[in-house]
Amino acid sequence: MAELSAHDATVVYETARGPLTALQDASLSVRSGEIVVALGASGCGKSTLLSLLAGFQAPTSGSVTSDGKPVHGPDANRGVVFQDDALMPWLNVLDNVGFGLRMRGVGRTARNARAAEVLRLVKLDGFEHHRINEISGGMRQRVGLARALAADPSFLLMDEPLGALDALTREHMQTLLLDVWQATGKGVFLITHSIEEAVLLATELLILSPRPGRVVQRHRLDFARRYAAGEPIRSIRMDPQFTAIHMQLLDQLVRETQEA
């Protein structure tokens, strides 16, 4: 089983006003078949934590490991999906999805076959030759997800990928993410500002404190697995337990924001 971990990770930025601790002694593990979601107020270090796991930056102290080996930079074993889809508008959908494979020297026939495969997985088959400006925002996020999947990484790291979508599209994308997770068995780390989204998607939910960000609570949740087992998403959202957890976390985060 693949495992991506942070161990007592602290990040301190040097600013004109002196050192700023963004993240303090954060520890977590993401394993195959799990969705770990980080939730907290703006500025609590969620994006910094994702950057550490992705290898975009190194911790000031502590460590990040993938299958027990130190993470020293980005790697194809960790696919990243950004809030801004970061697609190339001069390329069509198929070529956007296959771009990373192209940079790794994969031939056109093989990369087009792989791109078409993951486009079917995210339900965009038939749109391979559309330009980026010809598809909707939700479809662009699906292209970004397909691009991250193209290299068949063990882990998907997702930085508020649904934040810019309208409510209906966001709900459809949440279901799609669960479908992709169920179909691939990958480990997922996702950050979000949406409490409802976090409760729905997480198999483990991490609550981060206001800056400096610390993991102050961990919740094991089963709503994503209930969906994977066949329970309708509407039934899950209407479960009193789902509502109770949502309201408990909302009250907590509002209180912490007011006290910060």
UniProtKB/TrEMBL annotation:
Gene3D superfamilies: P-loop containing nucleotide triphosphate hydrolases. Keywords: ATP-binding, Cell inner membrane, Cell membrane, Membrane, Nucleotide-binding, Translocase, Transport. Residues 4-235 form the ABC transporter domain. The keyword Ribosomal protein does not apply. The keyword Amino-acid biosynthesis does not apply. It holds the Pfam family ABC_tran. One of its GO terms (molecular function) is ATP binding. Coiled coil: none annotated. SMART domains: AAA. Belongs to the ABC transporter superfamily. This is Taurine transport system ATP-binding protein. It comes from Paraburkholderia diazotrophica.
